[in-house]
Amino acid sequence: MLRLLIADGNDRAARDRHVAATGRTSAESYAAVVRALAPGTVCRLVSPADADAAPPEGLADFDGLIFTGSTLKVSDGTPEVTRQLDLMHAALEAGRPVFGSCWGVQVAATVAGGKAAENPRGPEYGFARSITPTQEGRTHPLLAGRPAVWDAPAIHSDAVLEPPPGARVLAGNQVLGIQAIEIRHGAGWFWGTQYHPELDLDELAAMLRLCGSALVEAGFAEDSGAVAAYAAEIADLQGSDPEAAHRLAWRHGIGPEVLEAGLRRREISNFLSRLSTEAG
Length: 280
What we know:
- The structure is a single chain.
- Helices cover 39% and strands 22% of the residues.
- The longest helix has 15 residues, at 79-93.
- The chain is α/β, with parallel strands linked by helices.
- Helix 1 packs across helix 5 (201-210), helix 3 (79-93) packs across helix 4 and helix 5 (201-210) packs antiparallel against helix 7.
- The chain has helices at 12-22, 26-37, 79-93, 103-111, 201-210, 212-217, 224-236, 242-252, 256-259, 261-264, 266-279; strands at 3-7, 42-46, 64-67, 97-101, 115-118, 124-133, 150-156, 158-162, 168-172, 180-185, 188-193.
- The protein is built from eleven helices and eleven strands.
- It folds into two domains: 3-199 and 260-279, Class I glutamine amidotransferase (GATase) domain (Rossmann fold), CATH 3.40.50; 201-256, no CATH class.
């Protein structure tokens, strides 16, 4: 039985907005995915951005950690950011395996000496398209089972622009050279993706609505109504009408790597499999 610590990257205000939009926090969503992939896993949820959050004790008692996404920016250097950098540093120094998507990648890279900032090539809202493994990534266990090219849910403006020394860049696309990475730091190791393998499409749609003004500002949508219409179609990809979902998938160029949960969550499943092997 695995024991995982799941760190919600959002501050309290962003968590409240996320709950209002989706019905649960990012950490709660991640825990549900983990339990579906590895039944019986014990998940403890923490919110390290909060000043009054109880610091996790006994990191060695956990088989691994997971860091969720966040609306925060590493470059802001606020106490909410620093507390999460400290947790990542402590976990890796303690020899813990860590997985992270989006924000988690940026935190791990920063701790290990890399650079995370606004991507000069622009944001990704909706999907990261045509992700391609590097030569190392083709045989790396994080990406086991992925095809030669795939799409994935994504929603970010910041990203890792410079990998830490010794890191292994595993995948990228035309928008971002670092879409998947392995980082070794201290006695621990980190696997992560800038995209969001954990997101169901209705949750992605809700997050797009929350970021509506950013999509308009970036030129992806004419106005908030256009964002709402796009988000509704993304949510309907998992709707109750299979024929309508099939037409929408064709319209948006969405394939099974996004539509099928088992394929979409591949990297999380691979991380959990590695933890089970090491714990056994």
